[in-house]
Automatic annotation (TrEMBL), chain A:
Biological processes per GO annotation: tRNA modification
Protein name, per record: Queuine tRNA-ribosyltransferase catalytic subunit 1
Location(s) in or outside the cell: Cytoplasm; Mitochondrion outer membrane
Species the sequence originates in: Heterocephalus glaber
Keywords from the UniProt entry: Cytoplasm, Glycosyltransferase, Membrane, Metal-binding, Mitochondrion, Mitochondrion outer membrane, Transferase, tRNA processing, Zinc
InterPro entries membership: TGT (IPR004803), TGT-like_sf (IPR036511), tRNA_ribo_trans-like (IPR002616)
Membrane topology field: Peripheral membrane protein
From TrEMBL, chain B:
Quaternary state and interactors: Heterodimer of a catalytic subunit QTRT1 and an accessory subunit QTRT2.
Source taxon at top rank: Eukaryota
Taxonomic placement: Eukaryota, Metazoa, Chordata, Craniata, Vertebrata
The name this protein goes by in its record: Queuine tRNA-ribosyltransferase accessory subunit 2
Database matches in Gene3D superfamilies: Queuine tRNA-ribosyltransferase-like
GO molecular function: metal ion binding; tRNA-guanosine(34) queuine transglycosylase activity
HAMAP family in the record: QTRT2
Species of origin: Heterocephalus glaber
Amino acid sequence: MAAGAAVPTSLESAPRIMRLVAECSRSRARAGELRLPHGPVATPVFMPVGTQATMKGITTEQLDALGCRICLGNTYHLGLRPGPELIQKANGLHGFMNWPHNLLTDSGGFQMVSLVALSEVTEEGVRFRSPYDGEETLLSPERSVEIQNSLGSDIIMQLDDVVSSTVTGPRVEEAMHRSVRWLDRCIAAHRQPDKQNLFAIIQGGLDADLRATCLEEMTKRDVPGFAIGGLSGGESKVQFWKMVALSTSKLPKDKPRYLMGVGYVEGRRPCLWGADFWAPLTLHGGVYGGQGHSLAVGEPRRTRLSQGCQGGHLGSPPQSFSLSAALPHTCTPSYATDLVVCVALGCDMFDCVYPTRTARFGSALVPTGQLQLKKKQYEKDFGPIDPECSCPTCKRHSRAFLHTLLHSDNTAALHHLTVHNIAYQLQLMSAIRASIVEKRFPDFVCSFMNTMYGDQTLCPPWATEALASVGITLS
Amino acid sequence: MKLNLTKVVNGCRLGKIQNLGKTGDHTMDIPGCLLYTKTGSAPHLTQHTLHNIHGVPAMAQLTLSSLAEHHEVFAEYKKGVGNFIGMPESLLYCSLHDPVSPCPSGYVTNKSVSVWGGGGRVEMTVSKFMAIQQALQPDWFQSLSDGEASCEEAISIKRARKSVDRTLLFLDSCLRLQEESEVLQKSSIIGVIEGGDVMEERLRSARETAKRPVSGFLLDGFQGNPTTLETRLQLLSLVTAELPEDKPRLICGVSRPDEVLECIERGVDLFESFFPYLVTERGCALTFNFDYQPNPEETLLQQNGIQEEIKYEDQIKKIKTTGCNQKMTSFEINLKEKKYREDFSPLVKECSCYCCKNHTRAYIHHLLVTNELLAGVLLMIHNFEHYFGFFHSIREALKSDTLAQLKELIRRQASGELGNTNLTLH
């Protein structure tokens, strides 16, 4: 079917928005610079997710001060509230939220499928019912691009036919081919190619042949960048890295590779809504925390919208809620490991809600993993989260103070951690980038694994294999 | 510490408190307010966002109710609560209770007072209370007191008398223990005036407390229902008349702009700033005008602001968690209202706070509708700045002998006579 797809008509040769600065001689890691309408962005880059035109409890000034130069907005959420017309009146999403740097918006497709109970995918698009007014809407490739045109983001994503990576059979192939057709429709509908960069999203699930076909087709389209999609949804880590490696091996070198929603930890439950909201005048009678622990068991006041992740983690939508499900992840995740490995495999851009979300559960990211600061062991720990971290939280506050504050209803506790976790991510990417530029990335990786796991040999097998496949051996 | 009065006008005291703090080089303006905190942090704000605010008071209020349960932590930390909370540069005042949270009655005994924190009740004898203060090392702290008289509607003379007796006993014990503590030499004890609504007891409390070597006075039990405020205000005048002029007078539980002015006229110097916090929690923004300079535009008020707000006020349910009246006032606008959805003006025109310089009503509305955390942050920034600006205008009015105009302007807004959509500030 893909072979019969029409070649995109009106798009002239897409600009090369990526400049390569350095490449690792052993692995596929690259350091580069994106040239975007709202300024340059150094890669590899981590993009925090600011779903509803806000980076949760931190101001755009704080985000800028941390060195962030690109973040995400979600088209699905913004398309419903406040809607593209209003945002356009507010001078686009940049104007609406007063963010001077770059924005990337997704297509809305993923949330559609994961968050909405009754959504139906056809060749036309995704038909769904708004959780707010019950109105039926169709999100087509054209409509998605139209909304994103109104939002005015610097990078926009094609609408893709999203299928969970745990799904097998003909549906996966159907979705892959449809995504190619939808890419062409997006390209045709895109009204501002000079102001907004439309990225394609490689699909194909966990099937190497399908993915290879998708790569072959999509790379024929002259888009400014490519995203690797359809992963981070419940597949095993082994399958995950192999698909990433396959994708990067066939994507052009001179265009950015965006790995969408990385950060799903093997064996973990799909992440559930927790401390996302500050709600004045709640049923509890006036005390708000954004904290997970302040939510009552079975509290029904959440909207359907709030279920599931915004960044792409979800296997299948959760069926029911319980307080235990809303607690922080109990396994030892290492989102940072995913990042390091995928940089080695040749990815340039990453987004994930995990660092900001886990902050709101009281969890601070550190080079050795995470600190669950609400735990009693931190009650009298008078050092900072990370003595090597230069973020405002670590410069001024101790673990003990944050522990105390986390047990209060002052939302400031969450903001301190959000600041730190974003800083952690950005500092990590900076360090990765510096090591690539200075031609010592493999050493950096070994040292990183040492710190994270206590010993390189304790690095998870999937990561060791993945690194080995691109020439980095952990001793 | 030294209180220098610049002038006294119709009972209002204008001046400065100098030589404050451990190093003795801080100053506070009076009339003024204290920065309200919850568990040692301004609500919703980190240091960065707090520093966005202009005019943050030199002294912050900490509440024992939020800190007492962490006594052991402070004891082990040893460097005092200012360092612990990351506010080493700020003056700190430790009050017993949180003005926003309820204070269940029936728990004060001759030997102890209780506070309620996140972990439940913490009972304190004088020695425990002082041990906690030793660990906290605040610049000022109120003495242990029996304030239950103010929680009840109609207080018996016997109960009022008891509150005064106990509070004096507690005070004397605290003072004694302070003498024995090297660490607490640098902290100042604020004596607490009790007595409920009983005039003789109030006077007795004032006179007796004034005899002790306290650094200032806390006027407790004057908060409550607006309907009973009138009686309490009369009593307030009588009480402050008994107090020495050269020591600051604080009042707890009073934070509304109109009530603040009433109390200043009756000799009160320092207030808590929890009112902007309450406004924030109901998704509202302070918009009342405190620019009393005659202005032709003032006569062109738009009245459309009033109607909807009155409607809203009727609809809103009274929240029972606190002793304070939680209803929306006419000093504020409710950003959740649909009319702000496409309003791209700032919360208050010409307000120079971070929120008004960077964001619009439409954006705040969106944040509230989507229950986003940033709504609280931005509203808190604006509301604090607006409120601190109000206090600044009070001091300016006193300097130029124009407090009557300011008072009239506030009175008209309190009664809803004036529209609330934003007058020009200069």
